[in-house]
Amino acid sequence: LSTLATMSSLTQKRRALAGQVPSNYVPGLGRGATGFTTRSDIGPARYQQGGEDQVPQGMPGAAPAPQNQQVTPGERNVVSFGQAPAGYVVGAGRGVSVKGEDQVAPGTKGEDLGDSNYSEFYGYGEALFKDANYDEDDREADAVWEAVDDTMDMRRKERREAREKEELRKYRSKLPTLHSQFADIKRELGDLSKDDWLNIPDANDIGAKKRKAPEKERFMPAPDSLLAQAQAEQGTHAQLDDRQQTLGGIATVAGTASQMTDLNKVGEGRNTYLQLKLDRVSDSVSGQTVVDPKGYLTDLNSSIRNQTADVGDIKQARLLLKSAITSNPKHSPAWIAAARLEVIAGKVAQARNLIVQGCEAVPLNEDIWLEASTMHPPDQAKKIVAQAVQHIPTSVTLWMRAADLETEDKHRRRVLRRALELIPDSERLWKAAVELETEESARVLLARAVEEGCCPLSVDLWLFFFFVA
């Protein structure tokens, strides 16, 4: 029975669904579905013959179509929106323009509305309504807003002025003006009398003027030709006359013009004459002398240096020594010879730089270290010898050189004791250390040297020890 009742109810539902559809029924509206219409369903827009108040066919509230009128498929979905307003342009809302005109929205012609002219705070850089007319309503609105701004400004005026005064006071406390700095002094000027004003001294020109900084003195190396020319002008290169060579300079040629007198040569001549007299006294036998005047003058003439030849020789020697250093940088005599050559040429600074380079190239040679300490001043020589003993701690010569550079005995003792710690079997160091000590300290050092096995075979140290003991 239940099955029969169910089947009968389904039959009734089918009959109800197959009946007439109620008015304004939209299929699927109950479940949220909505219908849509495309332009192909509507067709081209056409205006009806009726007035503007007539509702188009197919719209809610429209009059039913005549039953006997035949409607074509194209006219079935035609919708009429009434008469178009004046100035209406078809498609202007979606960007379609009249043929021959630019596609620009009204009121935006000539404006830059791109992203480059847009700010998040100020908006576009140009006024959007600059082409609009400024009427009475706009003027009244501006007046109202100006009145509102004035009211708000008056309300905050007292607080703003107080804040500005406080900020100005803090600023002037940090950076006072010149007027405030000299205000107390200007008040004191009122107490000056007329005599005080008259006795004010005149101000000198002590203003801060921009003076040109003095240029540093420049030194340029003199060419070798200039040095040779100066030597030729000051020196005397005269040949000896036959009678001078024969008589030993006693007789001279009368009326012979002399050249410029060189005081250095005069001093050298006096020294040479004094040495000649001393040699004559030492070599004389019964009042006779063995000095050959003719040969002496000949040797003296040959000893005069020719500066032009020396300059050429120095250049040639410099090239040879440079080649030797380049081919064998570990050859210390080449470095020493090159440095001494620069000293002879008068270039002491270049000689020092060259010998320092040699010390870096040959650090285990004590001769080059000694030469470097000789070429430098005492202060720099101490530093050089200190580096030398670090490379060659067992060199007695370097330790003795370090002791000689010290000016005080206590510093020399310190250097020698440090050397004896590294070289305890050096007799030379023990002797130098003993000479600087007192009698009691010398006895202790000698006992240590001969009895503790430092220098047990040194005869001099044993003799010193017995003499002091």
From TrEMBL:
PRP1 splicing factor N-terminal domain residues: 22-52, 84-208
Localization per record: Nucleus
Pfam annotation, one family: PRP1_N
Region listing for Disordered, in residue ranges: 26-70
Domain of life according to the entry: Eukaryota
Keywords: Nucleus, Repeat
One Gene Ontology term, aspect cellular component: U4/U6 x U5 tri-snRNP complex
Keyword Repeat: yes
Keyword NAD in annotation: no
Protein name according to UniProt: PRP1 splicing factor N-terminal domain-containing protein
Annotated organism of origin: Hemiselmis andersenii (Cryptophyte alga)
